Amino acid sequence: MNLFTPTSGAIMGGLALAKIEYSTWLKFGAKLFVVLGVVCMVILTAAMLILPGAA
User: Fold this and answer.
1) Residues 41, 47, 48, 50, Cα dihedral to 10°
2) 3-class DSSP state of 29
3) Residues 6+ apart with CB under 8 A from 53
4) At 12, is the secondary structure helix, strand, or coil?
5) pLDDT tens digits, residue range 29-38?
6) Is 3 inside a domain boundary?
7) How many domains is the chain built from?
8) Which of 11, 23, 26, 42 is deepest in the core (most CB within 10 A)?
9) pTM beyond 0.70, yes or no
10) Is residue 17 part of a domain?
């Protein structure tokens, strides 16, 4: 979540240096966050189906 909070100095500084608006970053970051979330859910679901006794 630190990549989306405007209080993160590194993100805001990097966006300012690259001259990218925060709203543009949020649009890009939201897509990335959704894709990563779906990939994680698929991997975790597959792992639970393959190794049901591991949990």
Assistant:
1) 140
2) helix
3) none
4) helix
5) 889 889 999 9
6) no
7) 1
8) 11
9) no
10) yes
Does residue 1 form part of some domain?
A: no
Whole-number pLDDT of residue 55? 56
Please give the structure tokens belonging to residue 25.
């970053």
Asked whether residue 4 is assigned to any structural domain, the reply reads no
How far apart CA 51 and CA 55 sit, in angstroms, is: 8
Share of the chain above pLDDT 70, in %: 85
In Å, what is the CA distance from 50 to each residue of 20, 41, 53?
A: 43, 14, 9
In tens, the pLDDT along 16-27 reads 999 999 889 889
Expressed as residue numbers, the domain containing 18 is: 9-54
| 7 has pLDDT over 90 | no
CB 40 within 8 A of CB 18: no
